[in-house]
Specification:
Layout lengths: L3 H4 L11 E2 L5 E5 H24 L2 H8 L15 H17 L3 H17 L8 H5 L14 H19 L3 H16 L14 H12 L2 H12 L33 H18 L2 H17 L31 H18 L2 H15 L17 E2 L14 H11 L5 E4 L2 E4 L4 E7 L5 E8 L6 E9 L4 E6 L7 E5 L2 E2 L4 E3 L2 E6 L6 E6 L4 E3 L11 E6 L2 E6 L11 E4 L5 E5 L7 E11 L20 E10 L11 E2 L2 E4 L2
Length: 634
């Protein structure tokens, strides 16, 4: 059995208001997210292993190790990271669900990785096989440090899961080489794609080696010198290199890079408490959420540079919204939640998980979206893998580790951030054992029931997030309503000496509503979207035969009705039905423009509208789809 500090070193960071639980302390046993985890375990992880073999990504390690003749399999320089993310996902699975077959596969892959490592600790199959004399020659786009970061994360996760240090030994040898290479008085620079920063801090927390924390700080401090080449119209800001990190006030550049960097900066704050870091993160978060995040939680307004745009530049069809950017947002917001204890960060995590993240994978678990638009005219379909396959294994590791985001703790008790059926069991720092179960059909139904199963005699706090989308919530303990409950930073707070058998019932108002965007969001002006609870909805061509979804209109006063749907979408889920309209454009007779009239002269034909959860679109072929629907008024 591993020491607690090794299993969850984040539990002892000095500047966290709230602390994460060990992964195995929270179990999702049924319902929405347990189903996703099950699919990830049974379908997605084995699929990922097959694709790593079929694409030659694993062969890169065999060739680099001298175990097989051949050459590097791709023009993409960072394929190693896909292997490391898959290993990290496997590690999370093994930590809570031991599987001898999966364990054997992972151990064999780890032996390949170890065999490919060079005698001085260097490990990158692209540079070893293609440009052996060009180490560290292209920090902007070479991704050497980025791949190293994912190796470090996998090593930490695998050591926690299994107690073996084979991969951790590989990681620390490489980290020691990087530390000997970069730093004051050594080679200058940092990676064009952030990732190693947060990974080094994870490695520091496991090993206690201060040099890794110092190196993470060094790489963060190297940014803002404006020396990176950039891409296209994006110059240094593409790599978050326009201004020093502590002076950054806006979110800009490549969306995934920005999320990974900010997650690393947040980790550095959690270790050092440096106020300037937190202030810069707060500025960027407010800039992002006030004008640069999509309704789905998606990030990245522009194809070029996969980048943020200007404030309110949020096009539905030409947005990028890369799946990895949504995952990165979850990673950053989780850290901000631990720093502040404020529900706004959990609210954005939830929005992103149910929409911008989950849309990236098919319901069956074996095909993926890289880009997640909010409007498709048809022809856009999920793929089993990509040449740049960063998103699929990223989804695997997120789903495998998902329970760690549901609950945190501090000296006063527990905080519940996300809702699902499962159980929580741990020992508080005071030595008091605590356990409770949670029952709910969230996000489809509005009730969450928590039953205390174990508790010592000392009073402790239970905090339950009141979601930002929820206008009204009620709470009862043992059937007795709590009038005017204490709400702190978005969390309903209950403090008492809990007894086994105590039941807490939380009810969240969850009516479907129409949402509109800020009037400066030109792309969706005079349009509305449907949301119910944390789930954003869309209309898809498969549900509207004979009608072009671009012709649909919604009356803002229309009643919205919920209904259960079975079968067509492979699983039971809640849909929204509403009376709507479709315009008849036939009288335009091929014209593209004409003289404007005082009101829309196109006749409106009544049509029933069915909206499905946005995450479920694209599972019935490459259908046209839209989230935002133009509005009409009675």
């Amino acid at each position: 059995m591993l020491p607690f500090a090794l299993k969850t070193p984040e539990a002892h960071v000095p500047y966290a208001r709230w602390r994460p639980l060990p992964l195995e302390a929270v179990r999702l046993t049924d319902g929405f997210w347990a189903s996703r985890q099950d699919i990830n375990r049974r379908v997605t992880l084995p699929h990922g292993y097959r694709m790593l073999e079929q694409t030659g990504t694993l062969d890169n390690f065999r060739v680099a190790a001298g175990l097989k003749p051949g050459s590097y399999c791709s023009k993409v320089v960072f394929l190693d990271s896909d292997v490391y993310k898959w290993l990290e996902a496997v590690a999370y699975e093994l930590q809570v669900n031991p599987d001898p077959v999966l364990r054997q596969q992972a151990d064999e892959v780890i032996e390949l990785v170890a065999a490919a490592q060079q005698s001085d600790g260097y490990l990158n199959t692209y540079y070893q096989l293609v440009e052996p004399d060009a180490r560290w020659s292209d920090l902007d786009f070479g991704h050497e440090l980025y791949c190293a970061g994912h190796l470090f994360e996998a090593a930490v996760a695998y050591t926690r899961a299994t107690g073996t240090t084979r991969l951790l030994d590989v990681a620390t040898r490489f980290a020691d080489l990087i530390d000997a290479t970069f730093g004051p008085g050594k080679r200058q620079g940092t990676c064009g794609h952030p990732e190693i920063e947060l990974a080094l801090i994870k490695l520091y927390r496991v090993t206690g080696k201060r040099a890794y924390l110092d190196l993470a700080k060094y790489f963060i401090d190297q940014r803002g010198k404006g020396v990176m080449r950039g891409l296209g119209w994006l110059k240094a800001e593409y790599h978050q290199d326009r201004v020093p990190v502590r002076e950054q006030t806006v979110i800009e550049g490549h969306a995934v890079r920005a999320m990974y960097l900010n997650a690393g900066v947040a980790d550095l704050y959690l270790e050092t408490g440096e106020a300037a870091l937190r202030t810069a993160l707060e500025h960027q978060w407010r800039d992002m959420t006030s004008g640069k995040v999509f309704l789905t939680g998606g990030l990245g307004s522009r194809y070029e540079g996969e980048a943020f745009g200007d404030p309110y530049e949020l096009p539905s069809d030409q947005c990028y919204c890369e799946t990895c950017a949504a995952i990165g947002s979850v990673l950053w917001n989780w850290r901000m939640l631990l720093i502040t204890g404020e529900a706004r960060f959990a609210d954005l995590m939830e929005r992103t998980l149910y929409n911008g993240v989950l849309s990236g994978i098919a319901l069956a678990g074996d095909s993926f979206f890289y880009i997640n638009p909010l409007l498709s005219r048809g022809g856009y379909a999920r793929q089993p893998w990509y040449d740049v396959a960063c998103c699929p294994p990223n989804l695997m590791r997120l789903f495998a580790s998902l329970p760690q985001y549901f609950v945190s703790h501090d000296d006063h008790g527990l905080q519940v951030h996300l809702y699902g059926t499962g159980s929580v069991r741990l020992t508080l720092d005071s030595g008091q054992p605590v356990a409770f179960s949670m029952q709910t059909d969230y996000p489809w139904t509005d009730t969450v029931t928590l039953t205390i199963e174990e508790s010592g005699p000392t009073p402790w706090q239970l905090k339950l997030r009141k979601p930002g989308w929820c206008p009204d919530a009620s709470i009862a303990v043992n059937g007795q309503p709590i009038e005017n409950p204490v709400i702190e930073a978005g969390y309903i707070t209950l403090a008492r000496a809990w007894q086994p058998g105590d039941v807490v019932t939380l009810r969240l108002s969850m009516e479907p509503v129409l949402v509109e965007a800020h009037p400066r969001v030109d792309a969706v002006r005079d349009s509305v979207a449907i949301q119910r609870g944390p789930v954003v909805y869309c209309v898809e061509a498969a549900d509207h035969p004979g009608v072009n979804v671009l012709d649909l209109r919604l009356d803002i006063d229309t009643p919205l009705h919920t209904a259960w749907r079975d079968g067509a979408l492979a699983e039971r889920m809640m849909v929204i039905e509403a009376p709507g309209f479709a315009v008849d454009p036939s009288e335009w007779d091929g014209e593209l423009y004409r003289r404007a009239t005082r009101r829309d002269s196109l006749p409106l034909q009544p049509v029933p509208i069915t909206a499905i959860p946005y995450f479920a679109w694209g599972n019935r072929g490459a259908n046209a789809m839209r989230v935002w629907i133009p509005r009409v008024e009675s």
